[in-house]
Amino acid sequence: VIVLALIKGVQIFDEVFVLTGGGPGTATQFIVQYIYNTGFTNQVQNFGLASAASVALGVALFILTMAQLAVTRRKDDV
Fold it and tell me: End-to-end distance of the chain based on CA atoms, in angstroms?
């Protein structure tokens, strides 16, 4: 359940983007919105930074998923 909640938290881009656009300022901006803004909407599009942030997000999600899986399996073994 924790992994699914984490993934849903990352996928919440469309609701926040439609309602606030990440504003006022960057008050409601989060990592997925940052990646989108960096890669596609800034005056100077920085695809390299957006790609690096995407890979870092993917690695972080993978590590958290594997940690949760290990904890769950450990509980099931007991």
Answer: 20
Task: Answer positive or negative: Cα dihedral of 41, 42, 43, 47.
Answer: negative
pLDDT tens-digit series, residues 40-52 = 887 788 999 999 9
Residue 38's nearest CA partner among 57, 53, 60 is: 53
What residues have CB less than 8 Å from 23, skipping those under 6 apart? 29
pLDDT tens for residues 18-61?
888 777 877 888 888 889 889 988 778 899 999 999 999 999 98
